[in-house]
């Protein structure tokens, strides 16, 4: 039997999916109505978090941050069954994941951080990606419990906290991607190109397919063999900035990147591959 703490978009859909697979699930949420809403799908809701975890072999939690995880688990602890396993799907700091793994082990419980690259639809359909790392005996034991909840379970090895780090790295890309797409739409609007036009372009020219090869190029540091010189990239950035200023739209990312480009050009790297702007972080 499982308990699920946190009935937000992910938690509620994880719960629905588990129930569809024949699992018994006890649920809790700070806003009680979110938990009781799951009773229509077969969950058993509780107003007291310690009651919600009673009898549960696996206690899943997905809340806001480290502080919320610590607060909820502390309140739930009096109800934990001996030998219960805590599985935390919250996006947290690496330090928080490490500390909880150690602290709950000292208390006689297993804690595994298992953050996800899954939206609500993925949680409902058991698709997407779930990340784990740490004690491989624990990971291997819990694989049959976790694998059915996701499309793919990604194991990042023995290092406790590595899954938390990988989740944060991935989210940093997603934030940059969305901000970059926003800038692209802003440049397009300033130039009379609408969103549908951009979708038509990307349907054939899809730069997303080149993300892995671009990262490999960055890591190989091919500064003396440029595919796009920094000076030329900076020229284009200047066109974007000028066009949006004239068109009355706003850029979030490109002006900051242009400033970084200027710093590297000032250092004498203008005729190098423009990926030289990443030199200090690889």
TrEMBL record:
Molecular function per GO: NADP binding; oxidoreductase activity
Entry-linked InterPro entries: 6-PGluconate_DH-like_C_sf (IPR008927), 6PGD_dom2 (IPR013328), 6PGDH_NADP-bd (IPR006115), HIBADH-related (IPR015815), HIBADH-related_NP60_sf (IPR051265), NAD(P)-bd_dom_sf (IPR036291)
The organism's place on the tree of life at top rank: Bacteria
Record domain 6-phosphogluconate dehydrogenase NADP-binding: where: 3-153
SUPFAM superfamilies the UniProt entry points to: 6-phosphogluconate dehydrogenase C-terminal domain-like (SSF48179), NAD(P)-binding Rossmann-fold domains (SSF51735)
Active site: 167
Keywords: Oxidoreductase
Name recorded for this polypeptide: NAD(P)-dependent oxidoreductase
Originating organism: Chitinophaga silvisoli
């Amino acid at each position: 039997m499982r308990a699920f703490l946190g009935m937000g978009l992910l938690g509620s859909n994880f719960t629905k999916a588990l129930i569809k697979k024949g699992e018994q699930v006890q649920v809790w949420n700070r806003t009680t109505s979110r938990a009781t809403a799951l009773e229509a799908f077969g969950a058993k809701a509780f107003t007291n978090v310690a009651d919600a975890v009673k009898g549960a072999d696996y206690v899943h939690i997905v809340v806001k941050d480290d502080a919320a995880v610590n607060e909820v688990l502390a309140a739930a602890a009096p109800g934990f069954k001996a030998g219960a396993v805590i599985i935390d799907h919250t996006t947290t700091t690496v330090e928080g994941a490490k500390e909880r793994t150690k602290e709950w082990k000292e208390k006689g419980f297993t804690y595994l951080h298992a953050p996800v690259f899954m939206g609500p639809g993925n949680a409902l359909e058991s698709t997407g990606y779930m990340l784990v790392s740490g004690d491989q005996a624990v990971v291997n034991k819990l694989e049959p419990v976790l694998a059915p909840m996701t499309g793919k379970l990604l194991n990042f090895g023995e290092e406790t906290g590595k899954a938390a780090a990988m989740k944060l790295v991935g989210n940093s890309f997603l934030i940059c991607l969305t901000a970059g797409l926003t800038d692209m739409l802003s440049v397009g609007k300033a130039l009379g190109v609408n969103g549908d036009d951009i979708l038509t372009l990307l349907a054939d020219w899809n730069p997303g397919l080149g993300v892995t090869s671009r990262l490999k190029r960055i890591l190989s540091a091919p500064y003396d063999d440029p595919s796009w010189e920094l000076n030329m990239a900076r020229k284009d950035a200047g066109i974007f900035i000028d066009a949006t200023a004239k068109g009355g739209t706003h850029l979030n990312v490109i002006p900051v990147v242009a400033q970084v480009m200027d710093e590297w050009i000032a250092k004498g790297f203008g005729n190098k591959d423009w990926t030289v702007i990443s030199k200090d972080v690889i």
